[in-house]
Specification:
single chain; alpha/beta; Rossmann fold; five-stranded mixed beta barrel
């Protein structure tokens, strides 16, 4: 099995293949936690080895609450990946964060209910710190690329993660707005915290697809997909330029996340 892959990409809703990899192959990996969402495509881009995995599967057959997040992260770790870029689709909880814009989460609030969010099991106790859940180096690279491409990106966003797959009620949506959160989605947790436990760098870049139902306009899957389809090429362009910007050596603390986390 490949062990020298450097960067992993989790494709979100609307992005089922990277479309940027050369000399690509597909690999299937079994993990102690079951199978990942799909086979993993590995290829080269500008001299760097990249892996791509659609978190919902290539046919979008896996709803967010049934994604095997632990298997996905474990499989990337097995390939030698140290950095993860995670595009996703989100709703907006703020007037100025408009559909079609991008958002960069720096914090999250977890409202999921049934997900297994830790590798802490079998007498191994991990109290991981997620005070700052995302890799600052990756976020810096994303910000630089967004500026170069003149993207309308909202930085320092707080992401509310809900269980799904249903959208929020009006009461729930209005409540989430009271928390001070900016965007809402269904896949960030536990993906990002598992990456931290695995001592991998992780950053999310979110495409805003709709105003959540607080805006008195019901959210539909059709609306989400229409906005996503318009932004797919822009997201791929971000990924293309981002890979070139990411430093080859890690100067962050993500690789040492377990040093003070285990009992």
């Amino acid at each position: 099995m490949e062990k020298d892959v450097e960067i992993g990409i989790f494709g979100g809703t609307g992005i089922y293949d990277s479309g940027i990899l050369e000399n690509s192959i597909e690999v299937t990996i079994d993990t102690p936690f079951g199978k990942p969402s799909d086979s993993i495509t590995i290829g080269n881009f500008k001299g760097r080895k990249i892996a791509f995995l659609p978190r919902h599967g290539k046919k979008h057959a896996i709803p967010p609450h049934l994604i095997n997040y632990k298997a996905n992260i474990w499989a990337f770790k097995e390939l030698g990946i140290t950095r993860i870029i995670a595009p996703s689709a989100v709703g907006s909880l703020k007037e100025d964060i408009e559909p079609g814009h991008f958002a960069l989460p720096t914090q999250f609030i977890d409202f999921t209910k049934s997900r297994n969010g830790s590798f802490s099991e079998n007498r191994r106790v991990i109290h991981i710190s997620v005070a700052d859940p995302f890799c600052p180096e990756l976020q810096s690279s994303i910000t630089k690329v967004a500026k170069e491409q003149n993207l309308h990106i909202h930085k320092d966003c707080t992401y509310v993660c809900i269980e799904g797959p249903r959208f929020s009620t009006k009461a729930e949506s209005k409540f989430y707005r009271t928390t001070g959160a900016d965007i809402i989605g269904m896949t960030l947790v536990p993906e990002c915290q598992l990456a931290r436990e695995a001592q991998m760098c992780y950053a999310s870049i979110s495409t805003v697809t709709d105003y959540d139902v607080w805006a008195e306009k019901p959210v539909t899957a059709k609306e989400v997909l229409e906005t996503l389809s318009k932004n797919v090429e822009r997201t791929k362009k971000v990924l293309t330029d981002l890979i070139s910007q990411i430093p080859k050596s890690r100067g962050c603390s993500c690789a040492r996340a377990l040093e003070e986390a285990e009992f």
